[in-house]
Task: structure prediction
Amino acid sequence: MYNVLMEELVLRTSDNTKIALNLYKSSHKEVIIVVHGWFMTKDSKAFRFLAENLTENFDVITMDCRGHGKSSGFYTFTEKEIIDVKTVVDFAKKTYEKIYLMGFSLGGGLVLIHQAIEADADKIIAVSPHHSFEKIENHIWKKEAWIPTFKKMELKRWFSIRPSCISCLIGKKIKPIDIVEKITVPTLFIAGEKDPTVYLWHTKALFDRAKCEKRFEIFKNGKHAEDLFLEDPQRFLNLCVDFLKTPAKTV
Result:
């Protein structure tokens, strides 16, 4: 049984943005860096619960992307958050033998983009990643979308979100679909069959385009991103741990 110590840290990016993170230390040599999506934070109940459950097998880093939680700046909907992810990965590389990236929604797209550019993680888990930002359906008026959001309502978190409207509307963003085939490490794609925000076809298209060792898991009747974990935490955890602990195939 590992003793877990959670430490709050702040890193500074190359563009002088402060990135807050929680480091769950349990003396493992492998670390999972968890990247949230739009309107979530490292301190939300969902990501605290996830991190605490993962510490049995790994050290865990959860982070606030810019414009969220305790980080500074404004959220640019993946335009500049790739800098945030790189900053945290560079920090982790100083300590850990293996680095795994797990991203949710836009964070799922971010970990794919990061790995395609930097090629410095050992495995990737992308949960409900987007094909490209402009193609996200985001039918927030549908009960399938707003009911899960309402259930996760945390006023402190909601008031901490600071979006960049310019980046949302006209910012230049890398499309995961244009870069996913550059990934060479094992990648697990996870999607909800009934995702009302980033439809299932996004993840399927990314999986089909990827050329690496890959796996695709669909949660029947599942919704979006961290909701897949909250709806069936044991299946989600077992799936991710099994994927990360299974040795990569040799070519």
